[in-house]
Amino acid sequence: MPFRNPDSAPAARILAAADQLFYSQGIRAVGVDAIAAEAKVSKRTLYNHYASKDALIAAYLTARFRHLPPSDRPAREQILGAFERLERVIASPGFRGCPYVNSVTELGDPRHPAHAIALQFKEQRRLWFKALLERLEVKDADALASQLQILAEGALITALVRGDPAVARSARAAAETLLDAAGARVSWRGSPPAPGADRRGTPPGSRSSGSARGPS
Predict the structure, then answer these.
(1) Fold (topology level) of 75-181
(2) Residues in Cβ contact with 11 at an 8 Å cutoff, skipping those fewer than 6 apart
(3) In DSSP terms, which residues pair with 3 in a beta bridge?
(4) Distance (Å, rounded) from C-alpha 104 to C-alpha 106?
């Protein structure tokens, strides 16, 4: 068991302190003494709830793991919205990159529980893209989901190096290009297009007044 009584007040304070210090200063740079002091508990209390620093690292990453399933909003809108949210995250005070990438890089041990947690989080994000792409009926949703995930990961890392949230805007534009190339040009609200209509909602044989674009 990584920790005991996670809902108790001391455990919650310890986890909040670990979250703040691990993310802002780094996992290797922060010891349990600093976390106990920040949480205003003794080291003995900390170890009563988290058996080791490794267990606390795993709990810290797991607590940040908030996977939300796709909503009923148009699929293309949700995909592009993910990059818009990414820009806001990057622009927020104290941004230090992805905590999962940071932990894997700092620990450098594929056997550490943090590695499996990070891998699970990244795969769930990729599958989130895939589920939305399947709604759009693209030809190879799995491959395109991987490409979108790579765009998001690249934006996080590049923005951290450059200190420029606008990198996420470039990633969004690239994602839009990929969606257009895959034929995912429209997200339908309400009823799907009429039988026989193409992906842009144009019945065969009729002329379109231009390329329709999904919400952005």
Answers:
(1) Tetracycline Repressor; domain 2 (1.10.357)
(2) 3, 4, 5, 49, 50
(3) 50
(4) 6
Q: What is the largest CA-CA distance in the chain?
A: 76
SS3 of 60, please? Answer: helix
pTM: 0.78
CA dist 173 and 161 (Å) reads: 20
Q: Which pLDDT score is estimated for 93?
A: 93
Q: What pLDDT sits at residue 204?
A: 31
pLDDT of 71 higher than 60: yes
CA nearest to 2, candidates 36, 52, 45: 52
Domain boundaries, the chain: 9-63, 75-181
Quick check: 171 and 150 in contact, CB under 8 A?
A: no
pLDDT tens per residue across span 165-200: 999 999 999 999 999 999 887 644 443 443 333 333
pLDDT tens, position by position, 44-59: 999 999 999 999 999 9
Q: φ and ψ at 188, to 5 degrees?
A: -85, 130
What is the CATH superfamily name and number for domain 9-63? Homeodomain-like (1.10.10.60)
Residues 65, 70: Cα–Cα separation, whole Å: 16
Residue 92 has a CB neighbour count (10 Å cut-off) of: 9
The arithmetic mean of pLDDT across residues 121-141, rounded, is 96
Question: What values do phi and psi take at 178, rounded to 5?
Answer: -65, -40
